[in-house]
């Protein structure tokens, strides 16, 4: 089914937690004719912590967190099987994806594991993607896109394993003041002749 987050946490130190506890298999949120599995119900939901879930099967992006939302963390989750779009579609502030799997999303070169974008508001900043496994997505593993609005500032891609995506492992068109460190990237571009890391002419300053 679909989870529309209609509340906010108190602060970044006291977030609202969505997830599982105890032992056993992770709970599964799954849809077939569902547009998106996890998203805010409005444009202002803050301080959300999602953990230990399997999110799968959406006709659009499996996870969609768009403009005006901030302080979202997803950890120890599996995000998979978007039918025609992205695993995650993001245009928010202060978002972290930690120790999660993003796999088998999309059906074309324009569908990506993660799609970071500023087309909604131009305020997308401060992303951390760390310790994740991102693979077998039809387009890029991670695409960073400016939407012709502004650059996406302060992105950290650290310690991820990115492989067997149809186009580029990482496609950076818009990151400014970012770091790409300690990642293992291999066997990408089998469908569209992409690269491990593609930096376009519009890419900003990276370490």
Compact summary:
The chain has 207 residues and is mainly beta.
Tell me about this structure:
This protein has 207 residues and is mainly β. It contains no helices and 23 strands. The protein is globular and about 40 Å long.
Helix content: under 10%
Structural class assignment: mainly beta
Number of helices: 0
SSE order, as H and E? EEEEEEEEEEEEEEEEEEEEEEE
- The mean pLDDT is 89
Query: In what range is the share of β-strand residues?
Result: 35-45%
SS elements, strand count? 23
Low-confidence stretches: none
What is the overall silhouette?
Answer: globular
What's the topology here?
Layout: E1 3-5, E2 16-19, E3 28-30, E4 38-40, E5 46-51, E6 54-58, E7 63-65, E8 70-75, E9 78-82, E10 88-90, E11 93-98, E12 101-103, E13 114-117, E14 125-130, E15 133-135, E16 142-145, E17 152-158, E18 161-163, E19 170-172, E20 175-176, E21 179-181, E22 184-186, E23 197-199
Parallel strand pairs: 1-4, 2-5, 3-6, 5-8, 6-9, 7-10, 8-11, 9-12, 10-13, 11-14, 12-15, 13-16, 14-17, 15-18, 16-19, 17-20, 17-21, 18-22, 19-23
Features:
single chain, seven-stranded parallel β-sheet, 23 strands, mainly beta, 207 residues, 44% strand, eight-stranded parallel β-sheet, 0% helix
């Amino acid at each position: 089914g679909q989870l529309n987050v209609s509340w906010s946490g108190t602060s970044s130190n006291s977030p609202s937690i969505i997830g599982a506890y105890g032992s056993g298999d992770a709970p599964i949120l799954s849809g077939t004719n569902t547009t998106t599995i996890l998203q805010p119900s409005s444009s202002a939901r803050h301080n959300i912590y999602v953990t230990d879930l399997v999110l799968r099967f959406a006709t659009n992006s499996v996870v969609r967190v768009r403009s005006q939302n901030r302080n979202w963390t997803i950890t120890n989750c599996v995000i998979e099987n978007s039918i025609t779009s992205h695993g995650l579609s993001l245009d928010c502030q202060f978002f972290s994806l930690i120790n999660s799997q993003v796999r088998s999303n999309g059906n074309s070169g324009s569908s990506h594991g993660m799609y970071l974008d500023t087309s909604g508001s131009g305020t997308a900043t401060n992303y951390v993607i760390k310790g994740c496994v991102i693979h077998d997505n039809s387009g890029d593993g991670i695409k960073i896109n400016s939407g012709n609005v502004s650059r996406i500032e302060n992105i950290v891609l650290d310690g991820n394993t990115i492989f067997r995506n149809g186009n580029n492992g990482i496609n950076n068109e818009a990151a400014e003041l970012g770091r790409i460190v300690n990642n293992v990237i291999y066997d990408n571009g089998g469908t569209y002749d992409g690269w491990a890391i593609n930096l376009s002419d519009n890419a900003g300053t990276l370490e």
